[in-house]
Write a structure and sequence with these properties.
Elements (H helix, E strand, L loop, with lengths): L13 E2 H8 L3 H10 L6 E3 L3 E4 L1 H16 L4 H18 L5 E2 L4 E2 L2 H9 L11 H17 L1
Antiparallel strand pairs: 1-3, 2-3, 4-5
Amino acid sequence: MGNTLPSIPAKRYFTIGEVADLCGVKPHVLRYWEQEFTQLRPMKRRGNRRYYQHHEVLMIRRIRDLLYDQGFTISGARNRLQELVHSARDDGAPEDTDESAGFELPSVLLDSARDLSIDATNFALDSNAVRKELFEIRALLSLN
């Protein structure tokens, strides 16, 4: 990449402003990309505020690389992301894991992280925190 992007801090959630700074794009671009890339679905909480997770920041950096550095169109970048996901599934390649955390990152995200000089192998999740968070999401969805 032409510009060196800052490293991604070890946080669970990022606001749209933080993601914009981490990925070198404006917030309105991120909102637009949400419409164009179905894989990009940040969690929305109170007041419809967006909260992005680590894997979504990696995906945004991949999208940015495809569009800005490799010269893909939106349609081409969308197709390329789908190809990467399908080829990772079809190959049946074992996914890279962080054994100490017990959490598997999809190989397509690890490949993106390597391409973008990000150390994704140190990313870990607490299963109890994830479970609690899923219950919170389910409660939010049942309100609608």
